[in-house]
Amino acid sequence: MTLDLNSDLGEGFGDYVMGDDAAMLDVVTSANIACGFHAGDPAIMRRTCALAVEKGVRIGAHVGHRDLPGFGRRAIAIDPAELRDETLYQIGALAAFAQAAGDRVRYVKPHGALYHQAAADRALADAIVAALRDFDPDLALLGPAATELEHAARAAGTRFVGEGFADRAYTPEGLLAPRGLPGAVLGADAAVAQALSIARDGKAADVDGGTVAVSAGSVCVHGDTPAAVEMARRIRAALTESGLPVRAFT
Description:
Elements: E1 4-9, H1 21-24, E2 30-34, H2 42-54, E3 58-63, H3 80-100, E4 105-110, H4 112-120, H5 122-135, E5 140-143, H6 148-156, E6 160-165, H7 188-201, E7 203-205, E8 211-213, E9 218-220, H8 228-241
Parallel strand pairs: 1-2, 1-9, 2-3, 3-4, 4-5, 5-6, 6-9
Antiparallel strand pairs: 7-8
Helix pairs in contact: 2-3, 3-5, 4-5, 5-6, 7-8
């Protein structure tokens, strides 16, 4: 059994820097790179793709709402046909920089509010899968298991990979706890323990002190979490020491 370790990267914009992407790319096996809608710009996209290829990290398109001021974390009503086009646009933009760096986009992961909206709304999930297949039917979809995203992917014949979060607490319903809720963002010790629990037992802690089922072939450490790089290093070391090699899923 192996597990992928991913992180949301390339999320700066202009002079604004978000996280230490270069250091994180020394640790993770897959990079969800912002495509310019919720974060990122052409120079950052080029630089992050080049670094990912240099370090042997797989490139994924981290697609989101057109919402730079809100960092893509605000729920926005959108027609599925428009979402399909905006998703295809973002994949294509990142693919150009991946190709320039000598590789290609391997998978797609929705970001922020879109991640949660599409997980609950089949029409939005279908739109994302349709855009993915418009670009390349061999692309995989990374997202929360047992949701509309997985159902849409499997119905279309698209490879789906379930994702768990090491650095975020869950609600008893199996959703990510809102960031403003006390305890929603986990510290390093708790994140290491949660990554191991997801990998070995398919379970994660919830904010009420219980556990929820999390089926995952990839575990995420957010690049903007405090001390994210050290957290990711500890998680990778702990997984390896437990006999769970960390390898890319594509």
